[in-house]
Amino acid sequence: MPKQTYFNLPQKKRETIVDGAKQAFARQHYDRVTIDSIVACAGIPKGSFYQYFTGKDDLYSHMFANIGTEKYQLLIQEFDSGPHGTFSEAILVLMRRASEFDGQDSVMVMLKQRFLQECPQQVKQQIMQRMVPESMELFAHVIRWFVEIGEFRQDFPIGQAAYMLTASVLMLDTYPLENGEDHRQAFRNMVDMLAAGLRLRS
Amino acid sequence: MPKQTYFNLPQKKRETIVDGAKQAFARQHYDRVTIDSIVACAGIPKGSFYQYFTGKDDLYSHMFANIGTEKYQLLIQEFDSGPHGTFSEAILVLMRRASEFDGQDSVMVMLKQRFLQECPQQVKQQIMQRMVPESMELFAHVIRWFVEIGEFRQDFPIGQAAYMLTASVLMLDTYPLENGEDHRQAFRNMVDMLAAGLRLRS
Q1: A98 φ, ψ to 5°?
Q2: All domains in chain A, ordered by first residue
């Protein structure tokens, strides 16, 4: 976690720092990103860096937490504003929007790729500890809506259904595709199956 | 993947090498394990190492693949030999056995801990690409049994149900526990929910 000095900064300033960090981490291998390159991109004196963060990992985790929060807030808004078809359709629209968010520009594309390939495990674990609950909150939000309209049962643990969807999405690149199948289709089948468990018996 | 020279070795010799690798990788941080320390533990000349493996990562992935295969074969045998209660009970018994396998001695405990904390991401991804399908095969095996005895529907994709369980287990340490809940309980609720989706409607 960044230090209190950082959170005391005006929001604009914090955004500039995070944007600079995105540039620095998108440009080079995680191991080769230096505090010098970060402060150059963020336009802050090197001396302030350590007043704000405990180190490179700290800023990196904070940057990803920010990206995650922005993404999940956006997706929740999208869901709330749109008409929704079935549960599976709603989830798949959100997944498409999430991909669009991840691929919105070359910086985001590089950040994601480097996160998957270069980020040290302990840093990744820290980031996951924050990303998993946010993703779960999104799925729980959608499930709750289908409970409210009376399509899903009220007597099951929403958090755990949300967790299964989260884990399945986050590991989807390890899913062994069969002939002709793609990840999107495979995931759709998973969502359908879960929905079958959640649906009210007629 | 190890080279063909390695697979041409007698099985006993291959086991000695893998056992030596376990000692070497359990003892030190992944980054600090040297080829010298591996050949010392495995009792092979350094010259042969590169006739068998492309490098440290290669042997490490192979070693984990071996551990995984042994574990999942054992679990499948366990399932086949025992009486099974409900689907959830069967899955939870297997998860307990898997924990026992992972914690069978100090070498295994250290290997798992170092894998989670120290193994570089790209090596981890390679290992996951092999571990996920084996874990899925175990869950699919159990699900198929419940289909055969007529308790589960025949018309859903078993592979994808098996994948959801696998992803949920593999990421369980990121699941945010609520008051009084433990991981085992949370996972049990997930299994129950999935089973509700798979069960034949009465």
Answers
A1: -60, -40
A2: 4-198 (1.10.357.10)
